[in-house]
Design a protein that fits this description.
Chain A is mainly α. Helix content of chain A is about 70%, strand content about 0%.
Chain lengths: ~220, ~220
């Protein structure tokens, strides 16, 4: 009679696989938050305590792993944006997006990496969601200006400017970072109001994608 | 007759010493800019291409090296602040300080490390200049509020908040960083005006010294 103690039931095997998958995704999020999305897969396998072969079997490319690790964040972002686009007051919607994105950035340091991750092989689901997000943001900005809430000289490069400024604050310990992000977002949104706007220096040569490219 | 070819003139020796000193200070500024002020002295000696003994002879403590490496930046800051305190319009002086400090941070990545460096042995010239700078900033804020330019709910912790936000922007490549810092400073100063101020979320638990302590 064969020794059964080392043979697991199919249910237990699936639970193991799920557990490994979660450990890999968790390790990936931590590593990306600390070092950006260029961390080698071998380093992530080591951090997760799984073999490199296990990792490659589940996530054959860096793209697959990044997309999976940040699927939740990206879908949260897309949800926040959809809600804002449905708001009858586009300026109110715009403020809600900035406030929520700033707090997400403070709560989860991997968020910026996720938001700015770009994939050389394009055409992934992740890339499609990203493109939709960019278009949605541009549409929200257009409506908020037309409605008179957002100042007319708000430049496309001001969005990455806000993200970068908030990233500086979000690097503090979490409780500090959240309070600081809320305060910073309130100051910035006040400055972005059309009402009482004053002349500004020219926009910086920034766009969401170039910010990412420079950081790699 | 002894061989003179390996004996240098006193003037040449002094020039060598000056040259070594400059290389050490340059290496220190680079290392601090990249990694903060906790880099071991041995790493700085290696980067400068001098022996550890040479470095220790000139800079016996970390404090001595940091203070010397950033003496120029700190004295620039003190000068900017003195000018602002002499300005008959304290709000104008306050804006000038924020604008200049933001650009200094963008131009020189070691600046934040310098500005926030703290020394366990205190009582150094550097520490004295720092204390004077802190007192001067507090006085400038008090006057700018009393004069009506700066909003009354500007909190002491808003200064490190601005520095952190600008540090996020200053991490970009230099030309981008300078343009982005100018734009960010303009937005923030607009939001700091007493005129048209709106309620804000509570200040974040930040102070210039704790920001530094957390980063170490």
């Amino acid at each position: 009679m064969p020794d059964q103690t080392y043979q697991k039931e199919p249910g237990a095997l699936r639970a193991d696989a799920r557990h490994n998958r979660e450990r890999i995704l968790e390790a990936a999020r931590e590593a990306y938050a600390a070092q950006g999305t260029d961390v080698p897969l071998t380093a992530i396998a080591r951090r997760a305590g799984v073999g490199v072969a296990t990792l490659y079997r589940r996530f054959p490319t860096r793209t697959a792993l990044v997309a999976e690790a940040f699927a939740e964040q990206l879908s949260l972002c897309a949800g926040v944006l959809d809600e804002a686009l449905a708001d009858p007051d586009p300026w109110h919607g715009f403020c809600a997006v900035i406030e929520k994105v700033c707090v997400m950035q403070a709560v989860d340091r991997g968020f910026t990496a996720a938001f700015l991750a770009q994939f050389p092989d394009g055409g992934t689901d992740y890339e499609r969601v990203w493109s939709r997000t960019e278009e949605g943001l541009a549409e929200l900005v257009r409506r908020a200006k037309a409605h008179g809430g957002l100042r007319a000289d708000f430049a496309p490069s001001d969005l990455p400017l806000l993200l970068l400024a908030n990233a500086g604050v979000a690097a503090e310990p979490r409780e500090v970072a959240v309070a600081a992000s809320r305060r910073l977002a309130a100051y910035l949104l006040h400055a972005l109001r059309a009402e009482g706007a004053r002349p500004l220096p020219p926009p910086a040569p920034l766009d969401l994608r170039s910010v990412h490219a420079e950081r790699r």
